[in-house]
Amino acid sequence: MGVIHRLRWGTLVDQWLDQELDDDRAERVLSHLERCKDCRTAAEEYACIKRALARMEMP
Ligand SMILES: [Zn+2]
Asked: Residue 43: which domain range?
């Protein structure tokens, strides 16, 4: 996978996981993840990291 691809979609996936995207862009990320295994793997890793971070942040 190309670096540009990773940067471009990585940022979107990151924002998508944080629910910062509007419906239109969230839809685009979802349909991309369906087609692109690399970004799907990256998304799972991001989700994993975010869960771990959330656990560390005490209220
Ligand atoms: Zn991709």
From this structure: 3-56
pTM for this prediction: 0.80
Centre of ligand 1 from the C-alpha of residue 18, in Å = 18
**Residue 41 CA to ligand 1 centre (angstroms):** 9
Q: What's the domain count of the chain?
A: 1
Query: Is residue 13 classed exposed, middle or buried when 0-12, 13-18 and 19+ CB atoms within 10 A define those classes?
Result: buried
Given this model, what pLDDT does residue 59 score? Answer: 66
How far away, in angstroms, is 44 Cα from ligand 1 center?
13
Query: pLDDT, tens digit, for every residue of 14-58?
Result: 999 999 999 999 999 999 999 999 999 999 999 999 999 989 876
The C-alpha atoms of residue 44 and residue 38 are separated, in whole angstroms, by: 10
